[in-house]
Predict the 3D structure of the following.
Amino acid sequence: MSRPDGLSAATCVAVYDEPDHKAEIANDFVYAYRVRIVPGAHTLWHRHTEDTVYFALAAARAQEELPAQDAVVTEIPCNVAVSRPHKADPLVHRVTNRGAAEFHMVGAEALARPPGAGAGDAPPPGWTLALETPRFLVWRGATGCAAWAPARPGLVVAVAACALADGRPLVPAGLLWAAADDALTLPAGFDGFFAAWR
């Protein structure tokens, strides 16, 4: 058997070895990575095997190739969250940026359920439920949303720069894993997402 090189679907690499998928956060519960692809470029053929939530941080036009199927081009709007159940349905694909601007997305794998997963209440006024799956609850904050101290562990994805209540800064497109005992408070007007693991 030949070594995986990502040059074909038969020799695909794991998502962790795909050069355009850069690790940002890795612990027992999450593996979060950033994907940036310049116009006209493509990833290697790679494999996803864990349930994943994705955050589009720029509008994009992406072509997805799957083994033995025709390629599909999708228009991806900015600041949306989507999920794919890769644990039950592993995915091998290659992605090409067919747009005029950089493809910029964050993916976060749910590796395990952290303590406190599924507990807690809904956010305060101004937050909207952006995505609900068996593995993820994703809320979107925006101008006018109230401050919120989530009771659940999860991933913070900042769309715009901000400072958390404890003074920690978040840059645009910044990521932060909030453990159950983190005492995280997202500020009023937080522009971004909070993804809770279930």
Q: What stands out?
A: The chain has a mean pLDDT of 94. The first strand starts at residue 13 and ends at 14. Residues 146 and 188 are 4 Å apart (CA to CA). The radius of gyration is 17 Å.
